[in-house]
Amino acid sequence: MEMVDSWCNGVENEKIGSIRSILQAFRRACHYGEDHGDNSTPKLSVMSGSVLDKVMHFVLKHMDKVLRQLLGAPSYGGKKEVISELMLSKSWKRHGNLMRIYLANALHMITEMTDEQMIAFTVHRVRASAVFLAAFPSLLRKYVKALLHTWARGRGAMPLVSFMFLRDLCIQVGSDCLDTCLKGIYKAYLVNCKLSKSISGSKQQHIQFLGNCVRELYSLDPQSAYQHAFVFIRQLGVILRGALTERGPKSVKDKRQKESSKSSKKQAEKSYQKIYDWQYIFCLELWTSVVCGCSSEEEFRPLAYPLTQIIHGVACLVPSARYFPVRFRCVRMLNCIAEATGTFIPVSSLLLDMLEMKELRGRPDGVGKAVNLFSVKQVDKKTVKTRAFQEACIYSVVDELAKHLTQWSYSIAFFEMSFIPLVRLRSFCKTIKADRFRKEMKDLIYQIEANVEFIKSKRVGIAFSPNDPATEKEERCSPLSKFVATLHQRAQDRMDALDETSVIVGAESSTFSRRLSEAQKQQDEQDDDEGTIAFSKNWLSENKKPKTPKEDKKRPREDDDVATEEDRVEDLVLSSDEEDGNNEEADDGFVPVEGDSDEDFVDPDSEYKKQKKAKLKKRNKRQPFLHKAPSRTKSNSGPKKKARH
């Protein structure tokens, strides 16, 4: 420990020998447990855990600052051009290898360590030296690969810290790693989107976080990002075209194809199952967020039209009530594109066609469980016929249709734009039998008609358009704007109610540490605490990850005794409605008064049960092993009712 302290003091005084010695110790700590095959450093052959912890923590905290001063580089940050000029200097030729040793050993630690807290701390500290990777192309490629892995697979703070490292590489290093990062981060995002039929709330939040990271990375350089986005969106269009050709109209198909075997049907099912897959749906949502987030950039605006065509084709691929969740997601994406780009997209037809299907007009078979349409991609046939599914669909139709019309509630052509939706909504109100659905539609119709009158009053005294539509839109004074605000609050209340009744598993995957946008001094203090905690563990005892001891499944005998007493099964006694009523009165504290007519009352059920038990005992005595269990019929619940004459 004294030797390490002397090295640390020498490093602070910028002594070259101390820097080389502590970097050599750092290398031994990163490769701890491996066979080196040489004895070039006998002083470091045996090191305790506390010594290695101190070496790791000191190097990760101070080495970037020390090497920058030694090489004559800027104290913080930098660009690729600065590093290329620095590589021509004498100081780099003398001491540039020290930076390579530091970065290479830190990379080995990131790829080989299993503790997530230690990896996150290492990535965060090495991030300050990201610009120096421009001088080492082979190390740069390895770092990008390792960071993409920790971003996609990590938990806790690791995805956020890894993404910030990748972002700094794209900004500081530039084109040398930008294309690799754009391709790699999209592929890593696809791997995380391979999910089952349903998705939990925590997993959906985690995927949303990954999508925000991809959008942030693609917004750094719109020109180069446009080429990658065009290729990936085109791939989605090719997959959709294959599904549409398999499920084309019957008149176009050949007669031989109609009479084909089951293999062709399976191929058709596989073709549209590729579309109705979480991976495909989340890719559409990703590119929707990218186009909407970069709508101000001229490079991304041409991608809005092909993306809209693909989303509309996905929504209309299988017009079945089982795939209403996918259609609602598509409608939501189209509304986002229309609002971001300021272009009109005919969304109302997708929503109004759903109201004309028999599943939403007919009488439901039962109540059913609450359905969250944005956590599933399809529902089963039994759920389609339930009342809960009808309510969820109709409320979602009202919400999305109101949002669509609200985008154009200040347009001078709102009257013509809302004419067909009003006609179809009125026809739905006439045919629907449920009063609660009729009331929802009438409220929406009333607000649309009020907005029509609002626009008409503005059109009277002007020649072309409202005098100042921008200020009126900021004030949110149209009837539809106020109505959508109330609908949004109601929808949020319904989602909160669904979240309360459901159990979310794996919430830690979407829980991240504090943002790294705080002051640098406060962050350094936190890093010191995290570093001491991370490297104070007994991680040197074994090379393998310690196994967690399994919990003893055996319970103490006292618990078993209590369980047997509590779980004792009593004989089931069936009672009639009259007995239930008497029991309720007794529970309420009812005491019969003397002189009532209930003194000589004999319960017919109790007499009937006594006779039945007596018969069973006699039969069991005669045939103790061959008797049959009494069948539970309606006669067991009480005396038979008299037939009506």
UniProtKB/TrEMBL annotation:
Keywords in UniProt for this one? Nucleus
Indicate, by first and last residue, each region the UniProt record lists as having compositional bias (Acidic residues).
559-569, 576-588, 595-605
**Any one cellular component term from GO for this entry?**
nucleus
Q: Where in or outside the cell is it found?
A: Nucleus
- Give a single Pfam family match: Noc2
UniProt feature, compositional bias: Basic and acidic residues: 542-558
The biased composition feature labelled Basic residues covers 610-631
Give positions of region: Disordered: 535-645
Q: In which family does this protein belong, per the annotation?
A: Belongs to the NOC2 family.
Q: What is this protein called?
A: Nucleolar complex protein 2
| Species | Zea mays (Maize)
Gene behind this chain?
Os10g0495500_3
